[in-house]
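Render this sequence as a predicted structure.
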Amino acid sequence: MDEFKIQELQPTNSIRFFNGGNPAESNNEVLRISRDGIWANPDIPVDEAARLVLKALDVSIKQMVARAVEAEREAFAAHAVDIARRAVKAEIEACEKVCEKHAEVYASLPKNPTTDSAWAACVDLRDAIRARGKS
């Protein structure tokens, strides 16, 4: 399989396409686009040069898209984790409130072993939920 390279040369403000190998070897250069115009290697048939350039562009575009997709996935993952953390926090707070409310109800009832045990269970559950939420 051919190796394709695109090389940007800043000093000459040009884009050069190579058919693998060493870019220093002029016979590897397929096409050059610069402000001076377009140069094609006369040793490479036009159809072959077009195929090589399109292949190089295809590879380059796929690499750029892959990098963009990966960056988007990372940003989405960070956002999703943030949403999940907020949801867990809200759920913990809601469960604490339920236990607290039940403890208040049992505390308001006439004292007996059953209401005392129920109150203590609600308070223990509330405290356990709070502890889990802080870890």
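Summary. The beta strands are 5-9, 14-18, 29-34, 37-40. The longest strand covers residues 29-34.
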